Amino acid sequence: MADFLETLHKELALALGDAVWAFARIEWVVHDYLQRLSKDRLNELLGDLTFRPRANVLRRLVEHSKAPHATKERALSAISQAEGLADRRNVIVHNPWSIWIDLDAKEFMHQIQKYSNPNKKIDLKQLKEFASECERVEQTLNESLSVL
């Protein structure tokens, strides 16, 4: 059992680190384009705000740009995808892992459970999928904003 928990510890630590880092890269893209798309150094003015308000300002900058409609829609869609990931990131970062033995399945169970909604859970596989999805959204966000 101790070997399993030690292996699980390392695997969870790496997966959590990857997930947090993957979303941090999205936050950096938002920060970067707040600077690029405004003349008022919004990245510095809004730097201490949480992700959603910064994403909302970026959304408004996109809406006010002179880019073609299809280009703006792609960027707005990418911002919305990033906001959806922010909600999942909050569950990952602000909630505890639960580790227990499922006696019926005769195996260890491990997942993150949301405090206010224990039915909302994220397991190790979903955590890894989250990091991959963040990488995809980061790329889409970067590509869609770079043409504005």
Any chance you could write out the topology, listing elements then pairs?
Blueprint: H1 2-36, H2 42-45, H3 51-64, H4 69-94, E1 97-102, E2 107-113, E3 121-123, H5 124-146
Antiparallel strand pairs: 1-2, 2-3
How would you characterize the overall build of this protein?
This protein is mainly α and 148 residues long. It has one domain. Helix content is 69%, strand content 11%. It is built from 5 helices and 3 strands; from the N terminus they run H-H-H-H-E-E-E-H. It has helices at 2-36, 42-45, 51-64, 69-94, 124-146; strands at 97-102, 107-113, 121-123. It has a 3-stranded antiparallel sheet. Strand 1 (97-102) and strand 2 form a beta hairpin. Helix 3 packs antiparallel against helix 4 (69-94). The mean pLDDT is 87.
Q: Which descriptors apply to this entry?
A:
69% helix, mainly alpha, 148 residues, 5 helices, 3-stranded antiparallel β-sheet, elongated
Got a strand count? 3
The tally of structural domains comes to 1
Mind describing the biggest β-sheet? 3 strands, antiparallel
Which percent band covers the strand fraction?
A: 5-15%
Helix percent band: 55-70%
Counted by DSSP, the helix tally is 5
* Structural classification: mainly alpha
Distance between the termini: 54 Å
